[in-house]
Please model this.
Amino acid sequence: MHTEKPGARLSDEYRRILEIVEMFPQGVQARRIAEILRRIPSDEFGAEITQEIKALRSQLANLKKKGCITVEATAEYGNIYRPVNSPLDMSLWTLDQARLNFSNKHHERLGSDPRPVAAYSMMLGLWRNTIVEDAHAGDGLDRISDGEMFAANVATFRLIRDFLETAQCSYCGHIKWSLLRDRLIYPNRIAAGSRTVSDLLGEHYERWTEEASGAFAYYAELTESDDHDMEWFITAKGCFGSVQRNWFGLPDWPGVVDAFLAKEHGGVTSKRPRDPFPIPAEDLRAGLLDGPDRMDPEVLNWCITDGIGYMRLTDG
Model:
């Protein structure tokens, strides 16, 4: 039986868009597609770019309906468009494929448990690498200190990790993503010190909730089939994201804390004497091991200035 290739009856305009997507098996954003179509960088576009990209996204949605491309909705990067059967389309993976990919990519570096790795991958996409950065950055709203961001990152990680570990499902076996979504975006959730999520984000709060809700809708779509259960999602999601082994909750963290407290010099690269600890050393160690999200952000500011983010253990 002859099977017609997806896209065989597309117009020239749609075929050109599909050809561009097929150039990027790892995925491509609509803005980048527009750049290639126009042959100029997007920062040289005029005011019409917003409407042009909106129309392009509509065309891309049509290509998805025709089975020509896949779409991953992320809060971090917006929609990511990939050709059908891209090896990086996790929706196509079986659990065994996800296990193999995780083992090959992360097992030696991040340990055998994919749950904290998946939680950090989600934290980056739902929180840290989103419009939240503009609320934090000095050239943005500048309303979140480094210490508060440290605490909020870990608080978000802990919330997601705890949800993944409890595997909360509905009566029909589907994952209750709406529970995690509502807990994450709850405006009065304490995220850092005494500050709430809505207080940290200010005018960006509403946009952030919309983007995060879109990502959760994608997770729900991914896990609709019976063979895409929580174990599958955790293992597959753990294969993505630039997760580092020296972060809280991952293998090197206790050693990082001990090395940080024991180092001789202050700052990151200087040879100057260290400033006095802001709290007793034993309390600082206990707090960092228990979780930066449960510490005073001012103490965390001191830790960041003193270089905790640059601590690395020698690979064994």
